[in-house]
């Protein structure tokens, strides 16, 4: 195992300025960024389909990093991390476990979005002792209704975006209406705030492997989520076309004591559209 020395680094609280580091474990070199004050339980961010380190909204990350040690990472085969993307969500969770324990942590809080939420659920079911608190956004349970159709929706919206020279996330994450369109543009612009040391894009092959893993996850037998006793915050928009919004209700019913936030007039990226409303509650939840 090897890691970059961070002991002499100044405190970074801006995601746009957080340096990219690497750690090698289990034959894979993982790329990650960290920011916020060290010490205590870190908040590890689990990112969405096709996403790299550059896909986290700084308006979500920065407020959490004001008082918490935040870590984002590229899972195996994504962005600047080496190796090949695994063919199952469960294997992605195993890699996440390898990465987190290589950094020396035995307790974390999880902030997840979309595919990241699938991975986070598999991680917490398999390693309940590792996770203290769980934030599940824009996501759903293993075997959830229409999760196996994510690939179809994704390819359709990539086509629509290509024809209009837009970012596919504008279609996939936001409603195409008077409130959604400006929110989409603002979100995509925020992802460009980091100008130096940007991550490599995901390869087409890695993206396709992720889609196959999502389809498999959607067609699997449901996991027993009653075993999740960690405080859990669930959030989504009310019109999620990628991971249907009803699945957030499903998670809320199955995870005892969980909290549910559904943002109005918004899609898969509801937490990004409503970051000003969502983030203070998420910060408070994680600080409790």
Describe this structure in words.
This protein is of the alpha/beta class and 288 residues long. It has a single domain, classed as Alpha/Beta hydrolase fold, catalytic domain (Rossmann fold). It has helices at 58-65, 89-102, 115-126, 150-163, 168-172, 180-190, 204-218, 246-254, 270-273, 275-287, and strands at residues 2-3, 20-25, 28-35, 43-46, 70-73, 108-113, 131-137, 232-237, 259-263. A nine-stranded mixed sheet has the order 1-2-3-5-4-6-7-8-9, sandwiched between helices. Strand 8, helix 8 (246-254) and strand 9 (259-263) form a beta-alpha-beta unit. Helix 1 runs parallel beside helix 10 (275-287) and helix 2 packs across helix 3. The radius of gyration is 17 Å and the shape is globular. The two termini are 34 Å apart. Residues 43-272 form the AB hydrolase-1 domain. This is Alpha/beta hydrolase. Keywords: Hydrolase. GO terms for molecular function: hydrolase activity.
């Amino acid at each position: 195992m090897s890691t970059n020395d961070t002991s002499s680094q100044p405190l970074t609280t801006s995601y746009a300025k957080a340096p990219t580091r690497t750690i090698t474990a289990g034959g894979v070199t993982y790329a990650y960024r960290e920011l916020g004050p060290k010490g205590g339980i870190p908040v590890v961010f689990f990112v969405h389909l096709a996403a790299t380190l550059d896909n986290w909204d700084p308006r979500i990350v920065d407020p959490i990093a004001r008082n918490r040690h935040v870590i984002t990472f590229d899972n195996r085969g994504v962005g600047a991390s080496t190796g090949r993307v695994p063919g199952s969500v469960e294997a992605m969770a195993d890699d996440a476990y390898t990465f987190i324990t290589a950094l020396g942590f035995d307790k974390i809080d999880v902030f997840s979005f979309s595919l990241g939420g699938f991975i986070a659920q598999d991680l917490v079911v398999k390693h309940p002792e590792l996770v203290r608190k769980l934030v599940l956004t824009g996501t759903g349970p293993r075997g959830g209704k229409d999760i196996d159709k994510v690939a179809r929706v994704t390819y359709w919206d990539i086509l629509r975006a290509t024809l209009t020279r837009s970012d596919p996330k504008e279609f996939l994450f936001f409603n195409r209406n008077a409130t959604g369109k400006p929110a989409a543009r603002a979100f995509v612009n925020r992802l460009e705030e980091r100008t130096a040391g940007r991550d490599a894009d995901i390869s087409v092959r890695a993206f396709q492997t992720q889609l196959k893993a999502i389809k498999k996850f959607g067609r699997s037998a449901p996991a027993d989520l009653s075993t999740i006793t960690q405080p859990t915050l669930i959030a989504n928009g009310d019109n999620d076309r990628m991971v249907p919004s009803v699945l957030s209700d499903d998670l809320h019913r199955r995870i005892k004591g969980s909290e549910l936030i559904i943002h109005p007039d918004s899609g898969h990226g509801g937490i990004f559209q409503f970051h000003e409303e969502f983030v203070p509650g998420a910060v408070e939840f994680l600080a409790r």
